[in-house]
Write a structure and sequence with these properties.
single chain; 474 residues; alpha/beta; two-stranded antiparallel sheet; 15 strands; 37% helix
Length: 474
Amino acid sequence: MDICHLSALEMAALLGDGQISARELLDHHLARIERLNPAINALVTLTPERARQQAFQADQTHAKGGSSGLLHGLPVAHKDLFVTAGIRTTFGSPIFSDFVPPNDALIVERQRRAGAMTVGKTNTPEFGAGSHTFNPVFGATRNPYDLTRTPGGSSGGAAAALAARMLPLCDGSDLGGSLRNPAAFCNVVGFRPSPGRVPSITAHDPWSPLPVEGPMARTVSDLTLYLRAMAGPDHRAAWSIEQSPDIFAGTLARDLKGTRVAWSPDAGGLPIHPDIRAALESIPDRLSDLGCEVTETWPDLSDAPFIFQARRAWLFAVGYAPLLEQSRHLMKDTVAWNIEAGLKMTISEYASICRRHRELISRVHRFMDEEEGFDFLAAPVTQVPPFPIEVEYPTEIDGTRMETYVDWMRSCSDLTVTTLPIISVPGGFTADGLPVGLQLIGRYRKDRSVLELAYGWEQATGWGKLVPPEPTAP
């Protein structure tokens, strides 16, 4: 087997035993990137020489009997929304097409300190807006399972790189589903951790619980290793969870007998494409086979779309209003629309949204912890399968019109406002071979329990082992 098809943990074991050097492992991945990336366009602003220097240092450390850290010698790439010291960071925008920041984002800094090798940046839509990865700087990223389809977004470059086995680990961010949506479209694993689990020191609004940063990988165990390198408090971050150093260490295997799961095939009544329904039809039975007690029900999230859109618009106004004034002609219309919506909002309107958000979170906690006693929620990740790359966003789902460019993502964004930890795991395939994801949602700050259920699901189903064929140019 091509070494690039091994899991990150298997690669780490080979590195630790000295069966392969960090430089050799890097060369295997760089060769695969050179061969496959032109057809997929997942990786942008490659940094092979920097990675080779990091690999050399890792091998020097290993030769002396040491280790660089949890990610010793493992190649990674960073989402092009994360600033990287000395590496071009465009945010997918022509406004920043030549921007080279002087500092690293905290998530990047932690990976570097854990011994990872940075091979470059992953593609993202402009300012991360929308779950379809294309921008005027680098163009569109293609789905390895079907090059005519989108990999989703906004961490679409990361998901596509993982699916194509160009890298074992990639980071990402999630506001309305940007770690979950592309993971589902590309048959990999994406985890939206609890706000503050992976702290940020560069957030536009450091007190907002909606945007988070986190890991993507091909297996739940690999993702957990990656999360261990990212998570933990930082005094510079407004949201920062104190945690035991070994909270994510050890086996994820657990007895799931009696675990209570609330399942909804349509995430609480949303329009769902028939192919998604068909692919996930057996979810309750499969969860039951794991020992779970499954009930078809759902908490009241009726306020979620209003809360999400208002707080999203506020974030865009906080982060990008000065750019709108200076460079409106260089922005895509959906980004400008989001900024303008935030600028038009009154303090009174925003205060009302904050109150409704507080009430929604209370309802969900009562539903899970008190009234019904559910350990998890489960639902489809996406409402549609991967759509054609020429389509900017779906405007209709199963006969229902989508009013805005974010409405088709409500299966993810409605759950964002719960502030609960959520994972996307491979859930099956459509009849024509397109990946479909399952979303598992845990109780407040019970991130590890989400990983344990996801691990049990992964071991029982094996959907993630189905690898796409090596692509050729479309």
